[in-house]
Design a protein that fits this description.
The chain is built from 13 helices and twelve strands. It is an alpha/beta fold.
């Protein structure tokens, strides 16, 4: 297969997704049925959230974007590369979260052996089948497996901190990327507009907060008043209508009340002073800071736990030297092709295997 052929096939897949959104897709009913099945198998995968994930992927599947991305890897010799078997253990916390790894393995010229999460076993095979319909040569390179043995040429595995320990032991003799729990955070200074806070609500509530890029904690100045924040995120109140989200909200709120913990809530989100970066579903942690200088010292120490940081343009400039991914409000769930999870360049890792 030629690299140009591979790129064109992914571009065509993007066109199929675009046609689905415009209700012009070939076998439109099949698309709609697959999305419904995915939601039935995992209620967290609402139609809205699946479509959100597809729209994010659509920005990657552009011919020019793909060419620009791959041009940064002069060592990529797609046509003559030695085919390696790359095992990928997919996460399933949000819809199609493993699609970027899927692309990296295939567009680096290798063979994919993917073990799907039980939480997301419908959507990626569906898109993979569409890709193979577009370009049949992919059939020799895409394989979904029930179990990965410990002898692939390389492994990419995503899981919790506990499962990461298992992966590290099981694949200790195989070149690997092992990902652990990470979270998104946001930094406020109290001068944010309602529009900025509304945009940040997307970082908090998209995918019900289940993504590693979702904001689970705020850093706020001392004495910060949350009134404007709560008013600004009020439009997201419909999350409480989701049965599983509602159950988590009630459960966590009840635990805090029983334990006598001080928290604030607005009927669909509990906000609590907690130093932990990770928060339960329907809960947002916060921590006060004294100055930007204290953040410059503190945040790099938490580098291994942070996926990205949502900030205003002002903070982007003031924190540009901390070597952590800074994004604007409302942008945490819109990573580009070069926004690799955990800051590890997957393409570079795969190309070094040859």
């Amino acid at each position: 297969m030629l690299l140009n052929t591979a790129i064109e096939s992914f571009h065509s897949l993007g066109e199929d997704i675009r046609n689905f959104f415009e209700t012009k897709a070939f076998r439109q009913e099949e698309w709609e049925q697959k999305l419904q099945i995915a939601e039935l198998e995992n209620p967290w995968f609402t139609q809205e959230n699946i479509r959100l994930a597809l729209r994010g992927i659509l920005t990657w599947l552009d011919r020019d974007a793909l060419n620009k991305w791959l041009s940064a890897y002069p060592d990529l010799e797609f046509e003559s590369i030695k085919l390696l078997t790359i095992g990928v253990v997919m996460a399933g916390n949000i819809p199609l979260v493993g699609f970027h790894d899927f692309m990296c393995v295939l567009l680096s010229g290798n063979v994919l052996h993917a073990k799907l999460s039980q939480s997301d076993k419908v959507l990626l095979p569906f898109l993979a089948n569409k890709l193979m319909e577009i370009e049949p040569e992919w059939k020799e390179r895409i394989h979904f497996v029930e179990k990965l043995n410990n002898s692939p040429d390389a492994i990419i595995a995503t899981g919790s901190n506990n499962t990461a320990k298992h992966f590290e032991y099981y694949f200790k003799n195989v070149p690997n990327i092992i990902r652990r729990n990470r979270n998104g955070i946001a930094i406020l200074d109290g001068s944010e507009t309602r529009e900025e806070l509304y945009k940040m609500g997307q970082d908090i509530f998209s995918y019900f907060g289940l993504g590693c890029r979702n904001v689970s904690k705020l850093y706020v100045p001392q004495g910060y008043i949350f009134n404007t924040f709560f008013e600004s995120v009020e439009p997201y109140k419909t999350v409480i209508n989701h049965n599983k989200y509602h159950s988590n909200y009630v459960y966590n709120r009840t635990i805090y009340l029983m334990d006598g913990k001080v928290f604030t809530d607005n009927g669909f989100l509990a906000v609590i002073n907690n130093p932990q970066l990770s928060s339960p579903i329907a809960v947002l942690n916060f921590e006060e800071y004294e100055s930007v200088e204290t953040l410059k010292t503190k945040l790099p120490e938490l580098k291994e736990q942070i996926q990205c940081i949502a900030v205003s343009d002002k903070f982007k400039n003031e924190l540009k030297d901390i070597e952590l991914p800074l994004v604007g409000f409302g942008e945490t769930q819109s990573p580009s092709l070069t926004d690799y999870a955990d800051g590890v360049d997957v393409m570079e890792f795969l190309l070094k295997r040859n």
